[in-house]
Amino acid sequence: MMPVVQLLRAALKHAGNRPPRCVMQTTSAVHGVRTHASSCTDGDKPKVLITGGLGQLGVGLAKSLRRRFGKFNVILSDIRKPPNHVYNNGPFIFSDILDYKNLREIVVNNNISWLVHYSAVLSAVGEHNVALAKEVNITGFHNILDIANEHGLRVFVPSTIGAFGPSSPKDPTPDLCVQRPRTIYGVSKVHAELMGEYYHQRYGLDFRCLRYPGIISADSQPGGGTTDYAVQIFHAAVKSGHFKCNLRSDTRLPMMYIDDCIRATMEFLEAPDDVLVSRTYNINAMSFTPQDLTCEIQKVLSDFKVTYNADPVRQAIADGWPKALEDSAARQDWGWKHEYDLPQLVQTMLTHITLGNKLARAF
Ligand SMILES: NC(=O)C1=CN([C@@H]2O[C@H](COP(=O)(O)OP(=O)(O)OC[C@H]3O[C@@H](n4cnc5c(N)ncnc54)[C@H](O)[C@@H]3O)[C@@H](O)[C@H]2O)C=CC1
Ligand SMILES: CC(=O)[C@H](N)C(=O)O
Question: NAD-dependent epimerase/dehydratase domain location, by residue (predicted)?
Answer without folding.
Answer: 48-283
